[in-house]
Amino acid sequence: MGKEKKNRKHGCGCGCGCEHAHEHEHIHEHAYEPEWKNELRYIQEQLDHQIQMHQQFQEQIMEQFQVKQVQEHVHNESEVDFVPAREEIDTDIGEESHFPSKHTYINVWSRVNQVVAQNNSISFERNGPLAGGITRINNHTLLIEEAGDYLISLAISFIANGNVTETDSVALFINDIEIPFSQSRFASRATCVDDVNHVFQINGTGIYTIPKGTIFQVRNVGVNQIDVCSADGANSASLTLVKL
Question: Which InterPro entries does this UniProt record tie to the protein (predicted)?
Answer without folding.
Answer: Tumour_necrosis_fac-like_dom (IPR008983)
